[in-house]
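Box 3.1. Reading complex inputs
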Amino acid sequence: MFDAVHNREGGEDEAALATPFVKCLVRLIRAQDSFGAWEGKSDAELLGDFILTKEKRRAIPIIGDPDPDVLWRLNMFYTAVGLAIEERSGLIASPMMEISHEGFGRVLLTTGRLVLLSKTLRDVHRFGFETFWKLTAAGSKLAGDAIAVIDAHPEVARGL
Amino acid sequence: MFDAVHNREGGEDEAALATPFVKCLVRLIRAQDSFGAWEGKSDAELLGDFILTKEKRRAIPIIGDPDPDVLWRLNMFYTAVGLAIEERSGLIASPMMEISHEGFGRVLLTTGRLVLLSKTLRDVHRFGFETFWKLTAAGSKLAGDAIAVIDAHPEVARGL
């Protein structure tokens, strides 16, 4: 029984890791590996810290200051959303973040004169996803919503 | 002769200090004076550090890290631009800044789904204006350009 569940989840992880959004994220992270320190790591290992199971989340205090690592992961996540948007639309979407030391803030993704994404961030110190599947679902949804905005205002997206 | 020049400049300063943009900036700064420490100060004194004459500018090293005071003034300036936009259009324009510790960065002003201003910032440690007149001219121009963008895309500005 336990094995069956385990296998099903393993298969789901594999499918999630093969989605275009996760591929973007992995490419982005591997591009920063100047010294080849992560070459031996699988994609799942590389993205391991993005996953926060319910138990792990419960173990983190409700109020806390985000450390540089979690801020880096947050930045990678939204940059990957921008990259996924670029892959599908050909328009460069650059993220901009403002996070207070307490972990509250805002992220913006813009292209041309168009705001593609504007999100208030809270509890950044607990940023993470329950499964790889939820990670890719969240990223793909943000990219898809942004593409819909571009399609609704193509001239503004080109900065006209 | 010297007096005449002085008077003319004094008159210009007064006119500049009475412009809507400078009024916005002064209001913004006075709103932060929780303890009344600046009550006795005139507007010109309050904005004194925004003015960087050619001599003063020359005295600042070309490369340098911005200190918190200059970052605060930069923030006040762009927030005042946003306030001036709001006064004229009724739409809230919020600024977002990303400045590296070396004084390079970017400022964005958005309203709804529209990017009103997107500017690369350089040499932030030398942020300042030669005269009050140049300060108000710069701020008013940025606000005016943003209003033109809103007029060109009214639905996007309302976030539709």
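In summary: Residues 1-7 of chain B have pLDDT under 50 and may be disordered.
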